[in-house]
Amino acid sequence: MQFKLINSDVNTKARAGVLETDNGTIETPIFMPVGTLGSVKNVNNRQLKEDIKAQIILGNTYHLYLRPGTDIIEQAGGIQKFNAWDKPMLTDSGGYQVYSLAANRKIDENGVEFRSHIDGSKHLFTPERAIQIQRKIGADIIMAFDECTPYPCEKNYARNSMKMTHRWLDRCIKEFRNTENLYSHHQELFPIVQGSVYHDLRKESAEYIADTECFGNAIGGLSVGEPAEMMYETTDLVCSILPKEKPRYLMGVGTPENILECISLGVDMFDCVMPTRNGRNGQIFTKNGIINLRNKKWEANFDPLDEEITPEYSFSYMRHLFKCGEMLASQIASKHNLKFYLWLVKEARQHIIDGDFEYWKKKMVKQVSTRL
Questions:
Q1: Tell me: the pLDDT tens digits for 336-360?
Q2: Residue 286 CA: distances (Å) to CA of 40, 179, 255, 290, 371
Q3: Could you give all domains of the chain from N- to C-terminal order, each with its CATH number?
Q4: Could you tell me the pTM of the whole model?
Q5: Is 92 assigned a catalytic role?
Q6: From the CA atom positions of the chain, what is the Rg in Å?
Q7: 271 catalytic, yes or no?
Q8: N or C: which end of the chain has fewer CB within 10 A?
Q9: Catalytic residue among 9, 140, 268, 271
């Protein structure tokens, strides 16, 4: 696996790069659709490849571990054989589920004991187990096991959690280096910077993560309720410390505006459930702003959702589908939103290469954040 920077913007910290994996090439900055159970909700692989132009998708370690289970995935020959996705994949470590399943888990130095949201059965994730599971799943990029702290979070808790995440990281790296790729492609491990919104903790964590000299690095624990400006300040600080020659992945972010601002701070990779989740609820993202298709104002608007991205369907028709509860509504909206997100990062990349990213970004941020 290799990462090469192609160009850097002279007025911001934005970068354009190429990430080469055994399963394909990824042009950065990139948005990665979330396929929690190995599939991106409401879209199939043909649509992902041909229409949406996805270059890499995510799988969720916690959910894939529970269903269908790592033994089935291993028998299939890895996740890409199982879900017929012949391009790169990334799996999270299950750490976010530690955060989101607070009522059903117990954290200690060894790891996290939790109860399945499916049947209540008890399970234990340790750093070593998280690596073993991700080896069996077989994604190209796998994540270190961490604790994602909530917002707001007391500084003492954030400090203790960060230090435990670092100790877990050491165990993850040891397990990763002591195990083999199970399939025909190479895997790389990304550690995760934590520390809540406290700058001294984030600085300490970023330095610790950078010193591990892993292939790439991730920024976690943001977009969990903190103000956007706080997220940008934290991201800027961390990116100033993480190695420039390695890919940077900001986990779980976010809106089109968030993505553009964080590209300008030096982030290369993004993921978020927002395009498909919001699409299922009738909200679409466009070049001109955010639209709720259920609103009556779109009832007789026969303009296309977007002349370039989704020219075939009108606002009126989409509102009709949502009001009638048609499954097609969420499918079209999810596909549109993902196409828009991939269009957005592709445009950002081109403007970084062309040298006018800052001007374009400022104009685009105003447009995409407008509520219509």
A1: 999 999 999 999 999 999 999 999 9
A2: 20, 45, 11, 6, 10
A3: 31-272 (3.20.20.105)
A4: 0.97
A5: yes
A6: 20
A7: yes
A8: C
A9: 271
